[in-house]
Amino acid sequence: MLSYEGVKAGGIINIVGVDDPAVSIRLKINPPAEEAVLQHYPKKEFTLLLKHRPKVIPASVQWFDLQLSGHTHGGQIFPFNLVTRLVYPAKTGLSQVGHETWLYVNRGIGTWGPPIRFLVPPELTVIELRPAMD
Prior knowledge:
The chain is α/β, with parallel strands linked by helices.
């Protein structure tokens, strides 16, 4: 588990994880700022940010290349997906959040609360990262 820390995978990619805010509240801890954690990794290297909630911190955008998030379950049950969009305006799927910074929000395959989905299909995503072509 990457809790406000990261690892270099294969010598080519930094993978950094931050906890869901609910964890800090439950453990009664004051976590470091996300951007402070990300600053430990060189900008010239690809940095993948794993973050449960699809909230992009403006001060962090310059420090990562791709953020992978979930949390919303795509709304799980219509019409809750409409409410979810108000709280988390990032759309499901891939969106650009900075000049060369991206966010991918996945609906997930599980559920929260009632074990059903209605008009919000589950999603399992495979993301393939390739080096840039010059």
